[in-house]
Amino acid sequence: MMNQIFIRHENWSGSDERQEIAGFQFSGMSTWVDVSKLRDGHRGEIKCLLCGSNNWTDNGRSINEYECGSCGNFITVEPKNHVQESE
Question: Left (φ > 0), alpha (ψ -120 to 50) or beta: where does 51 sit?
Fold first, then answer.
């Protein structure tokens, strides 16, 4: 079973998006989490490390960076690129 971790966020137009990510790092942390190197079976969405909320917003400050709408903490993510297979 492959690991799948998503970030759910509100985009600049106000609609919700859900994006699979390959890695992430919370603001102020030195460790980058590579999703593929986590133990097998990790699935779910990222919650804020400080407040536990799942209320991310894309405020446009930096590409692939999201702000917690509850406490203001930031997370930087690396989106997972999907390759479309031909049928």
Answer: alpha
- Residue 65 token pair: 């960076």
Distances from the Cα of 32 to the Cαs of 35, 49, 81, in angstroms? Answer: 9, 14, 18
**Residues 9 and 17: beta-carbon distance below 8 Å:** yes
Long-range contacts made by residues 63-72, C-beta under 8 angstroms, separation at least 24?
A: 66/7, 66/9, 69/10
- Per-chain mean pLDDT for the chain: 84
Q: From CA 25, how far away is CA 76, in angstroms rounded?
A: 5
Q: Taking 60 as the threshold, does the pLDDT of residue 38 lie above it?
A: yes
Average pLDDT over residues 35-54: 85
The single residue listed with the structure tokens 């203001």 is 72
